[in-house]
Amino acid sequence: MSNFYEERATMIAAGDLQEFVPFGRDHCKHHPNALNLQLRQLQPASELWSSDGAAGLVGSLQEVTIHEKQKESWQLRKGVSEIGEEVDYDEELYVAGNMVIWSKGSKSQALAVYKAFTVDSPVQQALWCDFIISQDKSEKAYSSEEVEKCICILQSSCINMHSIEGKDYIASLPFQVANVWPTKYGLLFERSSSTHEVPPGPPREPLPTMFSMLHPLDEITPLVCKSGSLFGSSRVQYVVDHAMKIVFLNTDPSIIMTYDTVQCLHSVWALRRVKTEEENVVLKFSEQGGTPQNVASSSSLTAHLRSLSKGDSPVASPFQNYSSIHSQSRSTSSPSLHSRSPSISNMAALSRAHSPALGVHSFSGVQRFNLSSHNQSPKRHSVSHSPNSNSNGSFLAPETEPIVPELCIDHLWTETITNIREKNSQTSKVFITSDLCGQKFLCFLVESELQLRCVKFQESNDKTQLIFGSITNIHAKDAAPVEKIDTMLVLEGSGNLVLYTGVVRVGKVFIPGLPAPSLTMSATMPRPSTPLDSVGTPKPLSKLLGSLDEVVLFSPVPELRDSSKLHDSLYNEDCTFQQLGTYIHSIRDPVRNRVTLELSNGSMVRITIPEIATSELVQTCLQAIKFILPKEIAVQMLVKWYSVHSAPGGPSYHSEWNLFVTCLMNMMGYNTDRLAWTRNFDFEGSLSPVIAPKKARPSETGSDDDWEYLLNSDYHQNVESHLLNRSLCLSPLEVSQMKDEDFSQNLILDSSTLLFTHIPAIFFVLHLVYEELKLNTLMGEGIRSLVGLLVQLARDLKLEPYVDHYYRDYPTLVRTTGQVCTIDQGQTGFMHHPSFFTSEPPSIYQWVSSCLKGEGMPPYPYLPGICERSRLVVLSIALYILGNESSVSEDSSQYLSRIIIAPQKSQAEQEENRFSFKHSTSVSSLAEQLVVWMTNVGFTLRDLETLPFGIALPIRDAVYHCREQPASDWPEAVCLLIGRQDLSKQACEGNLPKGKSVLSSDVPSGTETEEEDDGMNDMNQEVMSLIWSEDLRVQDVRRLLQSAHPVRVNVVQYPELSDHEFIEEKENRLLQLCQRTMALPVGRGMFTLFSYHPVPTEPLPIPKLNLTGRAPPRNTTVDLNSGNIDVPPNMTSWASFHNGVAAGLKIAPASQIDSAWIVYNKPKHAELANEYAGFLMALGLNGHLTKLATLNIHDYLTKGHEMTSIGLLLGVSAAKLGTMDMSITRLLSIHIPALLPPTSTELDVPHNVQVAAVVGIGLVYQGTAHRHTAEVLLAEIGRPPGPEMEYCTDRESYSLAAGLALGMVCLGEGDTINVDVTCPGATLALAMIYLKTNNRSIADWLRAPDTMYLLDFVKPEFLLLRTLARCLILWDDILPNSKWVDSNVPQIIRENSISLSEIELPCSEDLNLETLSQAHVYIIAGACLSLGFRFAGSENLSAFNCLHKFAKDFMTYLSAPNASVTGPYNLETCLSAVLLSLAMVMAGSGNLKVLQLCRFLHMKTGGEMNYGFHLAHHMALGLLFLGGGRYSLSTSNSSIAALLCALYPHFPAHSTDNRYHLQALRHLYVLAAEPRLLVPVDVDTNMPCYALLEVTYKGTQWYEQTKEELMAPTLLPELHLLKQIKVKGPRYWELLIDLSKGTQHLKSILSKDGVLYVKLRAGQLSYKEDPMGWQSLLAQTVANRNSEARAFKPETISAFTSDPALLSFAEYFCKPTVNMGQKQEILDLFSSVLYECVTQETPEMLPAYIAMDQAMRRLGRREMSETSELWQIKLVLEFFSSRSHQERLQNHPKRGLFMNSEFLPVVKCTIDNTLDQWLQAGGDMCVHAYLSGQPFEESQLSMLACFLVYHSVPAPWHLPSIGLEGSTSFAELLFKFKQLKMPVRALLRLAPLLLGNPQPMVM
Q1: Gap between the Cα atoms of 1367 and 1363, Å rounded
Q2: Pairwise CA distance, residues 1731 & 1684, whole Å
Q3: What is the pLDDT of residue 385?
Q4: 1474-1526 pLDDT, tens per residue?
Q5: What DSSP string describes 1830-1889?
Q6: Which phi and psi angles does 358 have, rounded to 5°?
Q7: Residue 1222: enclosing H or E segment and its boundaries?
């Protein structure tokens, strides 16, 4: 029997057993590539797969040689989730043949293929590796670096790396790799050493054997090793020793373990970055020796590595011509080097080698190796120098740079040499494990000796190095760590699976479903485990185990001492098991607490090792006890607990606590079977034999105790009360009540047990855990469990104060008397009373209460890492109530006393650092400091909700403070804590990359199929309907700008017209209308600017340009192609170009598109090429063209398609605005003859392409004042037409382009360049050069001439440009009124000009009236245009009124009788200019008056209205609705330059006219558009809404600092004008964006669709639902508050809050039902509480109000079973009367009430009354009995506790100290109680009792 018990006692049951098959194996078979690969390699399938498919594990290292190992292998690791959260599943990397399969688990399923890779040659190794993407190579940059997670696949000649982001790298290997290892820094390679690597001649040093690669794009560099020698000097050199093999590499800590094959020793090295001084030592390789041979060797490295990858892969032994390479790499002309005589030239070489540029020492990177193939010809290598020049020519290729080594290994430890050491003692498995107390061990398995060697190591105190300890041997055949529970599994030679923690044996593992080897044999057979156990286990271990109860029982087999026999026995034993069936062969793939066992029959099973504890309570208690005990004892305690907890048929979840208590008390020396409260624990099956196998051996006879036990059991009581009992008339048995006295005699603690001496320490930490759990409202159940244990210990330790403390907390659970176990007086001396033990119980509630009352308190003890809540509460109270700011930042020792056991310093320091807190954000008040600190230490809203309400109140108060005025730059976590989701969402969105935003409309494109796509269906309707909510202007604009539907051709057929003539008439009319249709796309592009995110798999839809018409009444089609009338050739080419641009400009800059998509959009039909050209230009304007590959750009330009070239050149230049990019400059120069060298061939570049290229140069060099470019452009402006006559036609546009370009290059520079002022280009160039400089002298050149003689010399049109240019230079003089506009007109014109409304013309001889009136209108138009530029995008009202007046005037002039004098063309031009300037001022605003003007002009067709005027009018319309109202114009220099190009006021006469101005430039307005729409989005509904903004302007010379209220969504003014923006109350929470700190924050909001999150305040409705604010809850307030609370109907709450919790509260708790009765009062209370919470914005206080109310009612019914709620009420009352709170109220008299001021006095009063009534009803006797230490009735227990807690009555043993005897008056009492800090009102209640007056003085 005994044998069985011993087994059972130490058995640990493993969890769920599953068969294991690597997931990749099956996938591999079905992977299509397996087939192709077999064909490719022509090898039969049977070689790839063993015939039965499920071949056993071929990859186990023992049976297989290295060559076969490639067949299949896999590795598992813990799952890593993308988000970085903790996940618990496996990932598998499976390798077979040419395939690598990576599968991942997930929460829902076991494994699924994540990626599969197939490569060209067999995979040698696959592994995971994280590369660090870092610019800074220093060690300190490591913590924060971003990491590229990759999978690396090693083949024989190269290594492939695939990153999770989808990048693929391939690196060729310059040598054969034996092994590759992932490190913390990158990859580490081991070069395979081949047999013929014996270098000729002794003096050569060998090549390095280890190399590192820190990133797939970095070079492979050699590893440096630094080993300390005996004399303390350390030597730095390359790792060249072939005997050194890496057997293990770990990333954290970063160490390597190597095995020396010659000395047969294992060593450990630290792997780290190279320090610069070590680099230098290695690079100055030769200094140490000073002999030439060192030089030679280092150079041989270079030469050798070069030669290595000459041709084929280095597989053909790279060393076969090792020597020849060397000799050839020297200069043949220097014999001196071969003869090794140290010649002078060599010394020269040495000194030369020190400069890193020549770095002799090293081999250069992979890419420099690839010379030619293997056959050597001496000529190629010899450097033909004269004999004396060999100083560096001898062995230096000119381009060799040193390869700087990057990683270094430091020697840490080598195992000691033993006398008998077998040759093949290399370890086959290494791992790091830590024991249950966190001590780390490096374990390596030496299979040949069946030993697992464990070396303990730890970090030194300064964290710089690892210190290794002694080595312990454990007898093992295999082993694996169980990382999750800090243990390891060891497979003993006997086939037993044993669990160890560190080097302490825990017990055997019992695997259900596998026979345990020792149980399968009958007890008579010798147990094969014994000899191995005894021999293999070294002595110190058995000593350790001796202290436990599970000493290994030796079976009577003679012990084997001889090691040879040991090995024999092993094999015999294998045979025995073979007959018995399967046994465990090896252990592999440990992940967390799962591990795979490989069985002898080749199958595998995966088992789970159970966790230490599953319930949170037991885990916390174990942690605390482990923290307090010495390490050895802690380990033993945990081992014992673990073997009890995980025994076969272990406990279910709910009895885990009972099991823990029993186990713990047994270890303290209790006999739990005899203790009344523990022996009733209900276990499934008795576990006593497991816990105390020695004591509980059942006796054969049984005893009376058994019967008593049965009668006292719960089971018996259940039977007694059973119904059958009554029917069977069974009389209840007399149970002899065991008297306490009997018990106390036989219950004596056994002082020999493990934990006996530590009972006080354990008791104290468990008490702290108890106080910690009180701070978590979810742990109530656990506290009640814990109290039982604590009370028992407190009684036995005779700690009265503690018992009293527990009684006051849980009066019903803690009887004042109970069963006491005596502790032998003699033994108490052995008990270890720790220094931190206090006789008064620490109480967190008491501590907080004292702080609130302003009394001093001793520091509160806390356990680092375990009692974190206590720490948080203490420090936050210290900060917020006591106002000590240093408590959270520097030193908390005056509030907290850390409990420290001597050596564990480092961990404590880490904890401290985690909490110390630097102010990163702007923090002013205490409340803000508290909130920011709490989020820094990871405190969240959920934690706040689980704090008891009294404790949480100060924190909630601080949160309430912060919620009112938060800073906009707080991190997301702070905003979440204070409940400002609007801010946290903003912060969160701010960190996201620009992608699709919240507002992008996800309208599937299929919605509008029935109507033709007009290119405007992707606009965001929601926002537009908010901006223009009163009318349908958006639909109107859409109607005006669509060009995809046929137009109506309305011609009346007069009787005299024949049918044929009528058809011609209709077509002519259509031709007129088409002039308008073709002009629409430019405006449409403006309207839909940046409104669409394309789908990368679909081409961009480009709407058709429809030039047909329909004639009413029969709706017949009219077409221009019928041949009846002459249509100009190429009429539509520019219109299509504009159509393409308009479509392309829909794409938002934030979209994800790439080169392939751009090419993919290329149309199939040639007639669409113009559209595609426009599309390319648009992509340049929105910045996407930079992604187009140079190759593709080249392709497009070589096609020679004129439009494509124009679009591409302008697009690329716009994308590279102002960058001076050289490659683009080259591209443009080819198209501009002036920029080519004079001798170059004449290129025939189309004129328009030249114009585009010139403007492109302007864009690329914008604002750089680049001298050469400026001079060339200046010359180009006035260049006379060349010999080719075609230049004469369109010369103006080239000159203008050169002028514009020159202006851009010198934008705003004001260089005094004298310019010929004859042509528009020069005028505009001057305007741009002196833009905003207010330079009078230049401006005066541009004045309009003021004599008739001079006026005749100037083309009137130029006067417009001159006036515009002059005004732009005198930027600050522009004033938005008509007086200023007229002031630009010279006197002569003003006096003599006709007013157009007059009927007869005045006659005058010497004045040319036509000239005068034309000059007049053009000058006015120029002034108006400058007004538009000055106030672009500002919506300035006076500018608008002024321009609107002039626009109206020009409209009237046009219809005036004598318009002909001025000429209708001129008037139309001027009107267009004024309209455009009007649209600029109102850009994006969609102003109705401007829209009406545009609509009127849209309807005018025919007459003078040509293509150009239509273009201008619709551009104005587009600007008005720029980007659907989301964009406006900027007035920066760059924007004005772009607008000058786009709005140049000479419009094309017809659709192919580019004579004066290249049409493509009209689209450059994009460069002036900027997003300025701010859209408030309600954070709860995620819908855009209205909100009131207050915008503060900075003061300027024209106005002081002013504030303006805007209703958002609105276009903001330009940001540089603003000081701050504020979301105003009362409806939304306030929010301030301060622009004085920088505009970056706001700019990023605007660029992401301008989404600004806002949060409705409770009780408010949005402006949409309640425009006037009459329905809000607060609007209904009545003078009398009570009547108002009554009037509040819970049904109406839905109108005031969207919080679902509040809504359902109203629904279920505030709705009256039919027969209410006395519940009406509760309903009223709930309703008014709800009202209070909603109006005061404190919905989080609702639970607190209700909890207080419930507690009061419970107290009234006298049903308080625990006093924690009373404590909370007490804390609430104390908080509101605390000094800090009163001061805050005085400082902020206006702030909202945090809790209703009327509720608290009522609470206070009610509780006082209840307790006073109890006193009068006999409670006074009870209190008296308590104070004098006499017994009292049990029924009064709970009320007494309430009284004691509420009135802070001191415990009875404090009273004698103040000498109450003989006190006669209240005054005396008052004086004596002062030191006990008892409140006066409590003393008034006690006075009668203490003064012997029986009547209590009830207040």
Answers
A1: 6
A2: 10
A3: 40
A4: 999 999 999 999 999 999 999 999 999 877 889 999 999 999 999 999 999 99
A5: ----GGGHHHHHHHHHHTTPPPGGGHHHH--TT--SHHHHHHHHGGGT--HHHHHHHHHH
A6: -100, -20
A7: helix 1222-1229
